[in-house]
Design brief:
4-stranded mixed β-sheet, single chain, alpha+beta, 3-stranded antiparallel β-sheet
Length: about 150
């Protein structure tokens, strides 16, 4: 939720069960929960300021805007939490928020029996030569040069 906010509003993360919900809040009085469309509310809108004169306006972000599906299980991004999954299962990830998220990929060697362990080790070794990995490595090297030049 970026953009202009009402001077008296706050932006905070609130725990709801196992979820951390990002929200904007302003005003005094009875709570008024504003549930918006899936596109989100990027800033504190003028009508919210009017409502906050009489109500405690609460505008939560949608936790389902950032997530991953592994097989038939869906997990949502949570601040400070890690997720490890077996990429042998069909999976997809999405970020429909206005915030950048950084993902660290780590490959673990699976404990397989012979001869599958040899095939797995060979494929992991060959992965470094794929265009996908090379492009990522080139991007990292370019970024590091820019980063160290800016210092």
């Amino acid at each position: 939720m970026r953009g202009a906010v009402l001077a008296s509003s706050t932006i905070q993360n609130v725990r709801v069960g196992d979820c951390s919900v990002h929200m904007m809040r302003a005003g005094k009085g009875r709570p008024l929960l504003f549930l918006h469309g899936a596109g989100g509310v990027p800033l504190w809108l003028p009508f919210m300021a009017s409502l906050s004169e009489r109500y405690d306006v609460i505008v939560p972000d949608h936790p389902d805007k950032i997530g991953i599906r592994v097989a038939n299980r869906i997990c949502h991004w949570q601040e400070g939490r890690a997720l490890i999954f077996d990429d042998a299962y069909e999976h997809e990830a999405w970020n429909e928020s206005d915030q950048a998220r950084v993902v660290l990929f780590v490959d673990f060697v699976k404990p397989l029996r012979f001869p599958a362990n040899l095939v797995n080790a060979t494929l992991l070794s060959l992965a470094a030569f794929t265009p996908f990995i090379r492009e990522g490595n080139d991007n990292l090297q370019r970024w590091e040069k820019e980063f160290h030049r800016a210092k």
